[in-house]
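Supplementary Note 3. Input sequence used for the single-chain structure prediction.
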Amino acid sequence: MPSNKKELRVQYKNLRKELSVDDIEEKSLAIANNVLKLPIWDETYFHVFLAIEEQKEVNTEYVLHLLSGKDKEIVISKSDFETRKMSHFLLTDNTKIKKNEYNIPEPVNGLQVPSETIDVVFVPLLVFDDFGNRVGYGKGFYDKFLAECNPKTIKIGLSFFESENKIDDVSELDIKLDYCVTPLKIYTF
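The predicted structure, written as discrete structure tokens, is reproduced below.
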């Protein structure tokens, strides 16, 4: 069984490739229904990633609907691939979204939100383990961003697949999740 980041990344990208559009929609909806059960609804600022369809990521439209239905402040990001940093913007009715060269949907402009004010972050990932460690695409954007957040910020992974026992090559710079939500259950770390 692979248990290092590189092998797990390959394995889970392949598992994702096998998902049909219907699988993605069904699983994404099940994840959103589980998100409703999390103890996070007293918070105000929620950071959500916008799915990269080409990478078959969890469709966060359902989570966005929940948040707007509960009148939450929704924050989305723009990535700078030179600095590997993200800047965050309030999602409003006027926000224009455009895909960048990596097919990541991003806000074109808007009201900037500092990382420290964000209460909850939904974190994209390829795979996670029983200890709340996650493997992303390996660019480090989210680890940098989460390190800038308030220590009380709630970090929630969204995954189509259940956890691995243990990711072996975790570094001290890797920031652990508080929860991970899959179509079947909620993991608490």
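The chain has four helices and eleven strands. The mean pLDDT is 95.
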